[in-house]
Structures are given as structure tokens and as C-alpha cells.
Design brief:
By secondary structure, the chain is α+β, with helices and mostly antiparallel strands. It contains 20 helices and 22 strands. Strands 1-6-5-4-7-3-2-8-9 form a nine-stranded mixed β-sheet, covered by helices on one side. Strands 10-11-14-12-13 form a five-stranded mixed β-sheet, sandwiched between helices. It is elongated, with a radius of gyration of 36 Å. It binds adenosine-5'-diphosphate.
């Protein structure tokens, strides 16, 4: 670089704390890479400003470009832009005065904190992040103004700077970083490209590394949804999340009023319930990456979502606490929830077949959301689906209408309770399968919302379905049979004898609805439920020929056979309730052999 015999300006960078730069370096070390984003962001701003001026003053269009060049020999990384540039006065005004007061106070307050992004943005220190990677920084700039003198600014990380005239011919700014020893890794194209892909992959201005264009200036979310095909959405999903399974469906957000928001949110296919929290929505501000951690922008129940949202009104450097408190963020969150409810409703109405398929993956979140958010509940309650025991899907209204009832019969385990389910179906009642860990809470919640509709477990429903015209047996006869059973089983359990509508079941064990739910919820909370009182009753089916037989055997004095059969009937009742323990299974097999031997 030649310096002509023109005026050289030297001076002090105006900060209140003399050693601010070393402190910046130290604090920001953990997020050293962000210097690149900060410098690109400044370059981008400068280009936008120049384009605005060109438009206003009819100077023709300026195609913006940011180019990064690496010089291994000189150990420099140079970031060049063709933005509006700066002259000597501007440099002194914008660069030399780190614009904040009370620097010392600020230093003390943040010394222990690593919230680097926040500090940088807050105090307009973006440019100075260059010193995180460089011992010396130079600015070569030429203002867009016609008679402007190009200048060179140099600073070695202290508070001293030097401005000399430069021969730079083109309008724009080069930021030249003389990399420090630890930062020589930034001389590698690969790393620089990776970082740009992370932060600035979707910047609306072209970015080149050594002349090679590496960004996508038009991410899918800026396009008009009507111009985008399903294939485009799927490809874009892979760009954001390489090697992911195809998403189920997506929502394209495109809001101009009352606030600005664009983005695409995908419902991913979940591998397991463990994927609950694997969602990831990248937050952008005018196509510049801000954070991966946009949990604050989405309500918790949508933490499965993946995608990108662009909120131009969110500052580039945000802290989590900022996001949590901000009223604007709350509005965005509400809007997203509303859009999701609308999307689900439209799928339900226009593409029920697929909606039913997706339901398997998304229902825990929808249910959780309904319990968390009343507005969401109101919007989706009529499209909430339930799986029936015969593998169809139904809404609550459809179910009640078909079954002409206000009672919903459900099974929590389709395999184990198969006999009960089938008995219920024979009585003309459809059984819903509610076997997800969230379902007990969910039915509890639904009952609280609409107390007219009661949810009843399949065994309880069966035990209530009694034949009306059954002859009433004398009380003493019943008492004899129950005490015989208590003796045969060797325990003092509650026993009732009822003329059930079905003949196929000899006995069943029922448990009051509340106690069933309490148990299931405490299992979900991983609690110890051995202490919970159980409220089980053994129902003996008066209409079952086996019960009649046991009664007859007992009365005839054949206690041995009656006892064997009574125990066997109890085994069967247990089997339909939950899987047997090893010990129970052993006893059951032994008894089966004995019973078979009697034939
Ligand atoms: P901020 O960007 O938050 O204002 P910076 O320290 O990053 O703080 O930059 C200070 C100012 O320097 C900018 O506002 C801008 O006026 C000027 N500036 C920085 N980089 C460039 C550039 N590449 N081209 C033109 N002006 C720039």
C-alpha cells in the first residue's frame, strides 16, 4: 500500500475504559466465530444503504457482493464489500467512537457473563469483534460520493489508530484482518465456508469465498407459497436439516400485518417419543441467522417442530431473556399457534386420509397443546381424532353420534384387553384405544371441559352392562358363592355377582375409574404407586355356565374341583387385566394342565 504525501491522522479511539479491546477479546472468546457474521452483517448493511441511495438518486442498480479472500502468506482474511463506503470523517465518527457511555460500569456488570452476542449487539461493537481474530485490523474504504478520498484506517487492538489516504479505486470497503496466531485456522476456505453457511447461508446479498458464490439469496420462505411445490419444500427441509427423514407436512408463514413474519415450519416424522424435544426452528432476522434456540418463540408443545422463521423486527443479537419477555415474540408465538390450528383444520377437512396418518405422530403434541392453551383447544377440539379398536379413526362427535351415547368406552391396552374389547363390540359399543402416556391426563382434561361426556374403561363398561330381566338370586346363595371364592383364592377381595350381558366372560376384575387413572398418572410421573389404595372388585358373571358349574360343584361338596375352577377363573380375569408376572404365569400353566387332565 502506498501512502501519498497527504495528511496522516492519528488519534485515540474514544472509549472510557482504556483497555476495552482486550476485554472484548477475552469475553467473546467462547463465540469467536461470530466476528465473521458481524463483519458480513456490516457489509450487508453498507450494500443496502448504497442501493437505497442509488434508487433515490437514480444512479442505476448496484448488484451487491461480499467477497472474502484469504492470504496464507500474509496471514490475512479480507472481507470486501461494494457498499456505500466511508470517508475519513465517517470513519472517525462511526468507527473511532465506540458509542456507549458508562463503559466501566458495563465492564463490571458483564465481566463474568458469556452472553457475547448480546453485548456486541447492544453496544454497537460489531466491527470491534474483528479483534477477536486479528492482532491488527485495517479498513480500506472509498465512499460512494464522487469526490471522496479513499482512506486506510489501521489499528492494532489498542486504542491508537491511524488514518492515511489510500488508492482504493472502487467504491466500498475492505476489512483486512491480520489474523493472530490462534486464528490462523480462518485461513482455510473450508472453515470460512462452513461458518458462512451457518450464519449467512440465506443472506439476500451474494457472498463469495475466493470468488466462489456460496450462499442462497432466496430461501424458500421469502417466496410466495403459491409458487412453491411440495418437492421444493422437501428439498429445502434437507438443506436445513441434512439426512433427515421426510417431514409429514409443513406450514408456510407469510405475514405482513400487524407484524412481519415469514418462515416454514415442518412437522417431522418422529422415530420415538424420545424425539419430543428434538425439534429445531432456526430463527433469522432478515435472512441472517440469529439462533437455533428459538424455543422462546414457540410454545413448549410445539417443541417438535423444525424449520426456519424470519422475524425482521428481532434484533440480530438477542439473548434468551430478551426473547422470553418481549411482547412481539409473544405475538409471533400466538400467531404460529393459530396458523398451526388452521393448518390442522384444513388437513382434516380437505385431506382426512393423510390427516389420519399424521395423527399417529402428532397426537401427543396436539393433546398436550390443548391442555396448555385454551385458545388452541377451542380451535382443534372438533378435529381431534381417536383410534378405535377396529383401527379406524373417529372424532368424538362422530363416535357419540354412531353409538347414540354420551359415554365413551376406552381401552388402555389393546392386546391385553382384547377379550373385553370384543365383548363390548358384541354389545354394539365401539371401543377407543387410549394407550398413550398422555391419554389419562387427556381424558381427565376432556371431562373437565365437558362434564356431560364420561369416559369409561372397557372393563367397567362391561361390568355395568347387566341383563335387565335376569332373575334375582336369593341373597344367601350369592353370599355362599362369594365366600367360597374368597376361600378358594385365599384372599379377602371384594366380590360381586352380576348377570352380565355377555356369556363369554366368566369373571372380570374391575377398578373404579378414578383409582385406575390415579395409578396410570403416577406411573407416568414415575411415582411409586404401590402405596396407592386399590379399589378392585372381582365380578362373577352369573350368566356364565362356568360360574354356575362352580356353584353346583361347591354345593355338591366337590370342593377340590370347585376350588381349582375358581382359581382358574381368577387367573383368566387377571390375564385380561394386565400381563401375568412370572410366578402367576407358572401357577396358571400348572392349573391349566390340571384342568385339562380333568377332561
Ligand atoms: P453497528 O453495526 O452496530 O452500528 P459497528 O461497530 O459494527 O456497529 O459499526 C459501526 C458503524 O460503522 C456502522 O454503523 C457503519 O456506519 C460503519 N461501518 C461498519 N462497517 C462498515 C462497512 N463495511 N461499510 C460501511 N460502513 C461500515
Amino acid at each position: 500500500m502506498t501512502t501519498k504525501n497527504q495528511e496522516t491522522i492519528t488519534g485515540d479511539i474514544s472509549v472510557h475504559t482504556g483497555n476495552i479491546l482486550p476485554i472484548i477479546k477475552k469475553w467473546l472468546y467462547s463465540e469467536q466465530d461470530i466476528f465473521l457474521r458481524e463483519l458480513i452483517s456490516n457489509a450487508h448493511d453498507a450494500i443496502l444503504k448504497r442501493q437505497k441511495i442509488a434508487l433515490k438518486e437514480n444512479l442505476g442498480t448496484v448488484e451487491g457482493c461480499i467477497n472474502i479472500t484469504l492470504n496464507a502468506e500474509k496471514k490475512t482474511l479480507t472481507l470486501s464489500d461494494n457498499g456505500l463506503g466511508m470517508d475519513s470523517d465517517e470513519i472517525q465518527k462511526y468507527i473511532n467512537q465506540i458509542a456507549f457511555s458508562g463503559a466501566e460500569e458495563f465492564v463490571k456488570k458483564y465481566e463474568d457473563k458469556k452472553d457475547a452476542g448480546n453485548i456486541i449487539g447492544h453496544f454497537g461493537l460489531g466491527f470491534y469483534s474483528a479483534f477477536m481474530a486479528a492482532d491488527q485490523v485495517e479498513i480500506e474504504s472509498r465512499s460512494y460520493r464522487e469526490d471522496a478520498q479513499a482512506i486506510n484506517w489501521k489499528c492494532d487492538g489498542g486504542t491508537k489508530f491511524e488514518i492515511t489516504p489510500s488508492e482504493k479505486q472502487t467504491v466500498g470497503t475492505d476489512i483486512i484482518l491480520h489474523l493472530n496466531t490462534e486464528s490462523e485456522k480462518y485461513l482455510k476456505n473450508d472453515l470460512v465456508e462452513t461458518l458462512i453457511k451457518k450464519y449467512d447461508n440465506f443472506l439476500p446479498v451474494e457472498i463469495q469465498v475466493e470468488g466462489k458464490k456460496i450462499n442462497d439469496q432466496n430461501p424458500l420462505w421469502v417466496k410466495n407459497p403459491t409458487d412453491v411445490t411440495d418437492e421444493d419444500y422437501k428439498v429445502f427441509y434437507q438443506t436445513l436439516f441434512p439426512f433427515s427423514q421426510e417431514p409429514l407436512f409443513w406450514i408456510h408463514l407469510n405475514v405482513d400485518f400487524p407484524f412481519n413474519l415469514k418462515g416454514i415450519l415442518y412437522f417431522p416424522k418422529l422415530q420415538s417419543e424420545m424425539d419430543f424435544n428434538k425439534g429445531q426452528v432456526k430463527l433469522f432476522c432478515r435472512q441472517v441467522f440469529v439462533t437455533d434456540n428459538s424455543k422462546e418463540v414457540l410454545p413448549e408443545f410445539l417443541s417438535l417442530l423444525k424449520g426456519a422463521i424470519d422475524c425482521p423486527d428481532i434484533p440480530l443479537n438477542v439473548s434468551r431473556s430478551y426473547l422470553q419477555q418481549d411482547a412481539y415474540v409473544q405475538k409471533i408465538s400466538k400467531h404460529i399457534v393459530k396458523k398451526i390450528a388452521e393448518k390442522l383444520t384444513s388437513l382434516f377437512k380437505n385431506d382426512r386420509e393423510n390427516f389420519e396418518k399424521y395423527w399417529e405422530d402428532i397426537h401427543p403434541f396436539i393433546k398436550y397443546g390443548m391442555m396448555q392453551d385454551t385458545e388452541f383447544y377451542e380451535k382443534v377440539k372438533d378435529i381431534t381424532l381417536f383410534k378405535t379398536a377396529s383401527n379406524t379413526m373417529t372424532t368424538l362427535a362422530e363416535y357419540l353420534e354412531r353409538n347414540k351415547t354420551e359415554k365413551v368406552v376406552y381401552a388402555s391396552d389393546k392386546q391385553t384387553q382384547a377379550a373385553y374389547i370384543s365383548a363390548c363390540q358384541q354389545q354394539g359399543l365401539e371401543v377407543l384405544i387410549l394407550d398413550n402416556y398422555i391419554d389419562t391426563h387427556f381424558i381427565q382434561f376432556l371431562e373437565s371441559k365437558d362434564s356431560k361426556i364420561k369416559y369409561q374403561a372397557v372393563d367397567n363398561s362391561l361390568s355395568e352392562a347387566i341383563e335387565e330381566k335376569a332373575e334375582v338370586t336369593p341373597k344367601e346363595t350369592d353370599e355362599k358363592l362369594t365366600s367360597f371364592f374368597k376361600e378358594a383364592l385365599g384372599k379377602d377381595l371384594k366380590i360381586e355377582i352380576k348377570p352380565l350381558k355377555t356369556q363369554e366372560l366368566s369373571a372380570l376384575i374391575v377398578e373404579a375409574e378414578f383409582s385406575k387413572r390415579l395409578k396410570s398418572m403416577s406411573v407416568m410421573m414415575k411415582g411409586d404407586f404401590s402405596q396407592l389404595p386399590t379399589d378392585e372388585t372381582l365380578i362373577l358373571n352369573q350368566n356364565s355356565p362356568i360360574i354356575t358349574k362352580i356353584d353346583a360343584l361347591a354345593q355338591a361338596g366337590n370342593t377340590e374341583d370347585a376350588t381349582l375352577l375358581a382359581q382358574y377363573v381368577y387367573d383368566l380375569a387377571l390375564l385380561s387385566q394386565k400381563p401375568l408376572t412370572g410366578e402367576q404365569m407358572q401357577a396358571f400353566i400348572a392349573r391349566s394342565n390340571k384342568v385339562l387332565g380333568k377332561l
